[in-house]
């Protein structure tokens, strides 16, 4: 994997962690993260918007990233989600490979709510 691909992959991973765990960050951390990562503002521009120094914003974003990684290490939601997505892909492939299968559910009413109660 090239260096650029590795950097992009890492950034995507951390932003996926943000999607999962952002409610557990402080309001200031979320605001700084969103301005820097999603609005694509530089650290200086983010600092100006927040009324803080560039170093303070850098530290805030770094602590946010560390917190996101710590939460994933403790809770593992991203890892579980990836595992479930892989299981779904495996099941879909198996269904598609099954002779005579069209790949659709013969009982479409079951597609809407998988949480059936007795």
From TrEMBL:
Entry coiled-coil feature ranges: 54-81
Give me the ranges of the annotated region Disordered. 93-118
Question: Keyword set for this entry?
Answer: Coiled coil
Pfam families the record matches:
UPF0122
Q: Does the keyword Coiled coil apply?
A: yes
Superkingdom classification of source: Bacteria
Q: Where is the composition biased (Basic and acidic residues)?
A: 107-118
Is Signal tagged as a keyword?
Answer: no
InterPro entries from the xrefs? Answer: RNA_pol_sigma_r3/r4-like, UPF0122, WH-like_DNA-bd_sf
Q: What does this protein do?
A: Might take part in the signal recognition particle (SRP) pathway. This is inferred from the conservation of its genetic proximity to ftsY/ffh. May be a regulatory protein.
- Family, per entry: Belongs to the UPF0122 family.
The protein's matches in PANTHER family, at most eight in alphabetical order, are given as: UPF0122 PROTEIN CBO2450/CLC_2298, UPF0122 PROTEIN YLXM
Protein name listed in UniProt: UPF0122 protein C8D99_11023
